[in-house]
Amino acid sequence: MAASIGAASCRALFCRSWGKRLSAAWGLLGGARGLAAQGETHLGFQTVPEAEKEQRVYQVFESVAKKYDIMNDSMSFGIHRLWKDILLHQMNPYPGTQLLDVAGGTGDIAFRFINYVRSQREYQLRQKLKSHQNLSWQEISKSYQEEALKPLGGSQVVICDINKEMLKVGKQKAQHLGYTEGLSWVVGNAEELPFDDDKFDVYTIAFGIRNVTHIDQALQEAYRVLQPGGRFLCLEFSQVNNPLISRLYDLYSFQVIPVLGEIIAGDWKSYQYLVESIRQFPAQEEFKTMIEDAGFLKVEYRNLTAGIVAVHSGFKL
């Protein structure tokens, strides 16, 4: 009888002990499932919760906003200007084009767009006057005056950026450079754009999409806001396709750019992140597939400067 009671007590202790262990194990598994449900992503070479990345990236660009343009010139030796010019020539907008420029806070793409459309408009006017050689000078003067009232032919560019400091810098530049027409500035998230469906002719994003937490969601939003026949254009750092240039580029990126960030902007960490974020961005073919998965057709890309950057293009058809 005593042996039976002892055996029963041992079994009870054994069950309680393992019950506690199993409960703890399930608790750990539940915690892991919770982390998985929340999701993790990269912030440069760090791994962070998805919910944290947006705020951390916001802080990076809030920190560098005032020195952003100077640093772009310093880091790229001014070549970024050529890359952006190529993007505009590939877009080839016409008077009346409605452009959405996402992550375009400092206005580089928007100002180029306005300049390009204005020159196209002036060309149209010259061609129109050539076709009416017999007009009197009064009629020619009247025609010029009418066109002066609508120099962009109805074109409008909306600059959308999640970062208020970047938009603030862009607005100051616009005022300083004399851009007063055809511009509007909107605070908005690339993953949840504050615009109606089928609204724009062209969507651009230059050096911005790699900072988005959910790239696939941003691409779906780009598709949503474009009109049928609209065009998606992305200018972004990509994968260098020459091994020698790749090694030199890595050396420059990791050893020089953060130092420039510290000297010019007083911010080593932000530029270390920017360098790391480039290495985490999908290569050309992988990004092309992502754009196609969002619904775009006729997707192609063009490498610039040995693939240091690439222009990806697609259409909503």
Automatic annotation (TrEMBL):
<comment type="subunit">
    <text>Component of a multi-subunit COQ enzyme complex, composed of at least COQ3, COQ4, COQ5, COQ6, COQ7 and COQ9. Interacts with PYURF; the interaction is direct, stabilizes COQ5 protein and associates PYURF with COQ enzyme complex.</text>
</comment>
<dbReference type="GO" id="GO:0032259">
    <property type="term" value="P:methylation"/>
</dbReference>
<dbReference type="GO" id="GO:0031314">
    <property type="term" value="C:extrinsic component of mitochondrial inner membrane"/>
</dbReference>
<feature type="binding site">
    <location>
        <position position="161"/>
    </location>
    <ligand>
        <name>S-adenosyl-L-methionine</name>
    </ligand>
</feature>
<keyword id="KW-0472">Membrane</keyword>
<feature type="binding site">
    <location>
        <begin position="189"/>
        <end position="190"/>
    </location>
    <ligand>
        <name>S-adenosyl-L-methionine</name>
    </ligand>
</feature>
<dbReference type="InterPro" id="IPR023576">
    <property type="entry name" value="UbiE/COQ5_MeTrFase_CS"/>
</dbReference>
<keyword id="KW-0489">Methyltransferase</keyword>
<comment type="function">
    <text>Methyltransferase required for the conversion of 2-decaprenyl-6-methoxy-1,4-benzoquinol (DDMQH2) to 2-decaprenyl-3-methyl-6-methoxy-1,4-benzoquinol (DMQH2).</text>
</comment>
<dbReference type="InterPro" id="IPR004033">
    <property type="entry name" value="UbiE/COQ5_MeTrFase"/>
</dbReference>
<keyword id="KW-0808">Transferase</keyword>
<keyword id="KW-0496">Mitochondrion</keyword>
<keyword id="KW-0831">Ubiquinone biosynthesis</keyword>
<keyword id="KW-0949">S-adenosyl-L-methionine</keyword>
<comment type="function">
    <text>Methyltransferase required for the conversion of 2-polyprenyl-6-methoxy-1,4-benzoquinol (DDMQH2) to 2-polyprenyl-3-methyl-6-methoxy-1,4-benzoquinol (DMQH2).</text>
</comment>
<dbReference type="GO" id="GO:0008425">
    <property type="term" value="F:2-methoxy-6-polyprenyl-1,4-benzoquinol methyltransferase activity"/>
</dbReference>
<comment type="pathway">
    <text>Cofactor biosynthesis; ubiquinone biosynthesis.</text>
</comment>
<keyword id="KW-0999">Mitochondrion inner membrane</keyword>
<protein>
    <recommendedName>
        <fullName>2-methoxy-6-polyprenyl-1,4-benzoquinol methylase, mitochondrial</fullName>
        <ecNumber>2.1.1.201</ecNumber>
    </recommendedName>
</protein>
<comment type="similarity">
    <text>Belongs to the class I-like SAM-binding methyltransferase superfamily. MenG/UbiE family.</text>
</comment>
<feature type="binding site">
    <location>
        <position position="106"/>
    </location>
    <ligand>
        <name>S-adenosyl-L-methionine</name>
    </ligand>
</feature>
<dbReference type="InterPro" id="IPR029063">
    <property type="entry name" value="SAM-dependent_MTases_sf"/>
</dbReference>
<dbReference type="Pfam" id="PF01209">
    <property type="entry name" value="Ubie_methyltran"/>
</dbReference>
